[in-house]
């Protein structure tokens, strides 16, 4: 299969660089179980990539929770303040980020998380994230008016590269259906690295689907190959 060469790379964070999606599941289930509800994977797949206010509304409406958005977000902050510092880097990710940085490929972060949430999640991985020089925090940036599946975050993230690449020059790594749709809507190629539970037929826009970042071959997209 032939792919178009790219010059710039954008990474999602939750579930792609870090295993925080596992922690989101634990945290949301802890909260909704107080009301006798279940946080299902079907619901999770719908909210992945949304801003915090957006996913709060989605969960409250879907599960008919008797609380306000503000109350829900207050409770999530308490839970995640304890969980997020425990997160780990996903397999194959660090190798790729360091490889691209070594070869001076412009790389950036495009996460729907707020800057505050990002700081919690990355406190044990600051050196690695320092290599992602250009960062966009969707929930904290006024220019990102809509969460994924809308293209806003990727267009804003690409605009932060000094060379101002065209969308077709950017490659996105994502783990969610909403993220794939957002990158595709932005006019970018996108690699899906899904959770094993995800029905990948829901993301026909994906340029390539791989089970783990360990499978990725940079040369397929005109990027420097890993050292033998």
From TrEMBL:
Essential cofactor(s): Mg(2+)
Entry EC no(s): 3.1.3.96
Keywords per UniProt: Hydrolase, Magnesium, Metal-binding
GO MF annotation list: metal ion binding; pseudouridine 5'-phosphatase activity
InterPro entries reported in the protein's UniProt record: HAD-like_sf, HAD-SF_hydro_IA, HAD_2, HAD_sf, PGP-like_dom2
Classification via Gene3D superfamilies: HAD superfamily/HAD-like, Putative phosphatase, domain 2
Entry annotated with the keyword Membrane: no
Superkingdom in the source lineage: Eukaryota
Keyword Amino-acid biosynthesis: no
Catalyzed chemical reaction(s): psi-UMP + H2O = pseudouridine + phosphate
Family indicated by similarity: Belongs to the HAD-like hydrolase superfamily. CbbY/CbbZ/Gph/YieH family.
Family matches, as PANTHER family: 2-DEOXYGLUCOSE-6-PHOSPHATE PHOSPHATASE 2, PSEUDOURIDINE-5'-PHOSPHATASE
Protein name listed in UniProt: pseudouridine 5'-phosphatase
Species per Swiss-Prot/TrEMBL record: Leptidea sinapis
């Amino acid at each position: 299969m032939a792919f178009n060469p790219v010059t710039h790379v954008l990474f999602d964070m939750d579930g792609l660089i870090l295993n925080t999606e596992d922690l989101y599941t634990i945290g949301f289930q802890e909260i909704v179980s107080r009301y006798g509800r279940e946080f299902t994977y079907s619901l999770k797949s719908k909210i992945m990539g949304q801003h915090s206010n957006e996913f709060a509304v989605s969960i409250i409406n879907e599960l008919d929770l008797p609380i306000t958005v503000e109350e829900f977000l207050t409770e999530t902050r308490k839970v995640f303040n304890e969980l997020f510092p425990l997160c780990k880097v996903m397999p194959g990710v660090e190798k790729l980020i360091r490889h691209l940085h070594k070869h001076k490929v412009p790389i950036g972060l495009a996460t729907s998380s707020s800057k505050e949430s990002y700081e919690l999640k990355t406190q044990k991985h600051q050196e690695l994230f320092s290599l992602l020089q250009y960062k966009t925090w969707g929930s904290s940036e006024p220019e990102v008016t809509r969460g994924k599946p809308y293209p806003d975050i990727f267009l804003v993230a690409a605009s932060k590269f000094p060379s101002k690449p065209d969308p077709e020059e950017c490659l996105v790594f994502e783990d969610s259906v909403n993220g794939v749709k957002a990158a595709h809507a932005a006019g970018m190629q996108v690699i899906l690295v899904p959770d094993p539970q995800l029905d990948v037929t829901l993301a026909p826009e994906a340029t390539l689907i791989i089970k783990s970042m360990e499978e990725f071959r940079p040369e397929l997209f005109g990027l420097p190959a890993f050292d033998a």
